[in-house]
Amino acid sequence: MRRLLGFLILLGLLAAGAAWMISAPDTLPAGEFADDTGGDPARGQAVFTAAGCASCHHAPGSEDKLVLAGGQRFASDFGTFIAPNISQDPQQGIGTWSLHDFANALLRGVSPEGRHYYPAFPYTSYIRMQPQDVADLWSYIRTLPASDAPSQPHEVGFPFSLRRGLGLWKQLYLDPSWIMGTPGSEELKRGRYLVEALAHCGECHTPRDDFGGLQREAWLTGAPAPDGKGRIPALTPDELSWSAEDVAYYLETGFTPDYDSAGGHMVAVIDNFAQLPPEDRAAVAAYVKALPEGGGM
C-alpha cells in the first residue's frame, strides 16, 4: 500500500507539473513587433472603429467615447467582466506599454506581466489580425487622451478566478485558422476579415459550449445573450432572409427591412460600421449571404 500511495502521489505531481507547463502563457517572439514607429495612425483609426474598441472601453455614460477609461460591465455564465482602462495613462492605463506588449494582448491574450486575459476580451478573434493592422491600431491608440480612472477587478469566482487555467482553455479554443474556407473574391476575403477578425461578430452570434468555447460547427447560428436576457439572432441564410443590400443598409442605418431598428449592443456596432466605407459594409453583407445554412463550414 505504501508503494502504491507513493506512486499515486508521484503521478499526481507529474500531472500537475505537466498541466503547469502546458498552461504557461504563449507569447510572441521578442523580435516581433519590436518597432514602435511602424504604424499609421490614420489607418489605425479605421481599424479602431471596425474592431469596436471604444464600444467596450469607454466609461459607462460618457459622451466622449475616445476616453478609454473602462468600467462597463459584461455579465456571463462565469461571472461579470469589467472592461479595463486602456487609455494612455501610465499608472492606470497602458501608457507604459510597448507595441510588443500590445500585440501580445491582442494576438495571444497575455498581459505584459505574463498573465492570461479572460476571453471576454475577444483575442480569440483578434488572433487573425494582420500585423500591420496591429501596428496601425497601436499608433492610433497612442494619440488618444489619458484617464486616471482605475480599472475594476472582474467579479469572477472560484475556479474561474484561477487565470492559469486559461492556458489550458487556450489549448482547446485559441485557433487562428479561418472559419470560412478560401474566399472566391476579394470582396468575400475582406468580409471574412471583418467578420471573423476585426468586428469579432462570432463572439456574440455563435453559441458556446459548457467551457465557454465557440462552437465553430454552429458558426453564426445565434446564441443566448450572455446576460441571460433574450437571444442573439442567427445570421445564416436559413434564419436571415435579408438581401445583401438589406444587410449593408442595416449596418449603415440600423434599420431593418421590416422597419424596425437595432437595439442593445447592436447600436454601438451600427455606430461603428456606419463610419466605415460602403465597400466594407458590402463585404460583410457578401460574407453573410455566402454562409451555409445551419452554420457548418
From TrEMBL:
- Tell me one Pfam family matched here: Cytochrom_C
Is the Ion transport keyword given for this protein? no
Which keywords does UniProt give here?
Answer: Heme, Iron, Metal-binding
Q: Name it.
A: Cytochrome c, mono-and diheme variants
Q: Which Gene3D superfamilies match?
A: Cytochrome c-like domain
Q: Which residues form the Cytochrome c domain?
A: 39-145, 186-292
The record lists the lineage as:
Bacteria, Pseudomonadati, Pseudomonadota, Alphaproteobacteria, Rhodobacterales
Q: Name one GO molecular function term.
A: electron transfer activity
